[in-house]
TrEMBL record:
This is Spermidine/putrescine ABC transporter periplasmic substrate-binding protein. It holds the Pfam family SBP_bac_8. SUPFAM superfamilies: Periplasmic binding protein-like II. Residues 1-20 form the signal peptide. It comes from Roseovarius indicus. Keywords: Signal. InterPro entries: SBP.
């Protein structure tokens, strides 16, 4: 009789134990966390009968490293491509179960990394004023051509992207870009090309809102920026255009933390959120950063689709930013960049 009572008590607790399962989902805060909670986390929690706690993060590499040495606090974490590469090398992440997430292999290779799923994209490229006297700029060679396209210019104060843009301006193809940049001669070539444009850089930007502010005020005619900023600027009446040609396509990833006790649930959530085109469309309605869910563009108005980084006509003229290259080479190149910036 005592055994039967124990079984009955245990059975009575089963539903509450299932509901007590909790996933901790670490991602960028603010509007993004609000968006992803509404579009993905809450629907998944209701569908799976679990709790999903979204937490805001900033410097994920430092936080992940700290958790690896102490206690794992997250199950899923947002990482840029460079941190994904670093974490893969350091053993920070669990391998994803692609047989569960994408059994029909519908996602593109760039989204199907061993330890990360590509969940969103944005592009860094050239923004220009559309009310100027010059013809529209259309390449990095044009950006460097200050005689045919005169005007004030701005670049971000970082080697990331700028070395690639310099090589593209010097005639390197998108396909050979990182092969060239991986050599000492290629790095020298990039900095030599940057020497040419340096006198024409009016301001080096450091915060994401600055390029559009400079464009809006007329202080700058051409700058690098992120495509979503231009979309918002145009909606606000600012005469701005974005150049998709030779822009850097940048992918953000979600990874499952090594040591997570909810690996199966984590893979299930990634499948739920990032292979469903309707969820991706719901995200895009609030923020112009699409994922790779097959069928997404069938659900979007044409005018919306044309302003997104993975719209086919836009994606095919960009190059894929290689976070792995920067994870391996940034310390050395950052030092050289700082020395170059301080030189005449």
């Amino acid at each position: 009789m005592k055994t039967l009572n124990k079984l009955l008590v245990s059975a009575a607790f089963l539903p509450s134990m299932a509901m007590s399962q909790e996933l901790t989902f670490a991602t960028a805060g603010g509007v993004w966390l609000e968006t992803i909670t509404e579009a993905c986390l809450d629907p998944y929690a209701e569908s799976a009968g679990v709790e999903v706690a979204g937490v805001a993060t900033e410097d994920t590499a430092a936080q992940i490293r700290a958790q690896m040495m102490t206690q794992i606090q997250w199950d899923i974490v947002e990482v840029p491509s460079a941190v994904l590469a670093l974490g893969t090398a350091e053993g920070w992440f669990e391998p994803l179960d692609w047989d569960k997430i994408d059994p029909e292999n519908q996602l593109p290779d760039v989204a199907r990394q061993e330890n990360g799923i590509g969940f969103t994209t944005y592009s860094e490229g050239i923004v220009y004023r559309t009310d100027g006297e010059n013809d529209p700029i259309n390449s990095w060679a044009d950006f460097w051509n200050v005689e045919e396209f005169p005007g004030n210019r701005s670049l971000r104060d970082t080697p990331l992207g700028n070395l690639e843009y310099a090589l593209l301006a010097d005639g390197v193809s998108k396909e050979e870009l990182y092969d060239v940049l991986s050599s000492e001669e290629g790095v020298d070539r990039a900095f030599a090309k940057l020497d040419e444009i340096k006198p024409n850089i009016t301001v080096w930007w450091t915060a994401g809102q600055q390029p559009i502010q400079y464009i809006a005020s007329g202080d700058v005619d051409y700058s690098t920026t992120w495509n979503g900023r231009v979309t918002s600027a145009v909606e606000d009446g600012i005469p701005a255009g974005f150049v998709w040609n030779e822009a850097a396509l940048i992918v953000g990833y979600y990874a499952v933390m090594k040591g997570s006790e909810q690996v199966d649930l984590a893979n299930d959530l990634l499948k739920f959120c990032w292979t469903d085109p309707q969820i991706s469309a719901n995200v895009v309605e609030r923020m112009p950063y699409p994922g790779f869910a097959p069928g997404l563009y069938d659900l979007l108005p044409e005018e919306t689709a044309q302003n997104l980084s993975t719209f086919p006509a836009n994606e095919e003229v960009q190059f894929a930013f290689d976070g792995g290259f920067w994870a391996e080479n940034r310390p050395e190149l950052q030092d050289r960049w700082q020395s170059w910036r301080l030189s005449n």
